[in-house]
Known about the structure:
- The radius of gyration is 35 Å and the shape is rod-shaped.
- It has one domain (15-92).
- It has 4 helices and no strands.
- By secondary structure, the protein is mainly α.
- Helices cover 61% and strands 0% of the residues.
Amino acid sequence: MKLKFFNNKYVKPFKNPFVIPGIGFIVWMLFFDSNSFLIHNELNNDIDKLNDKKEYYINEINKDRKAYKKLNTEYGLEKFARETYYLKRENEDIYIIEYEDSLNVNSHE
């Protein structure tokens, strides 16, 4: 009966002296080593997140460059000053028109 177990087709590969240490080595490298598969997977996820942030900031830099180029002209600077700070020229009147949907109204009062 004992011989029948060792002659089983599933047990025969484990008779080779290199199979069990090889399996141990593979398990060690996948889970327990400092350069394991799990750590590599986590680092790859971090790299993907950082690349996404990099793309976002590159897009923001490009938007800011376009806005800077617009403000760098005399017309763009005047438009910005008029819209943001309500500046005006001499002998000029400014009327600010606010619509009901653009007002900040507290509904609690």
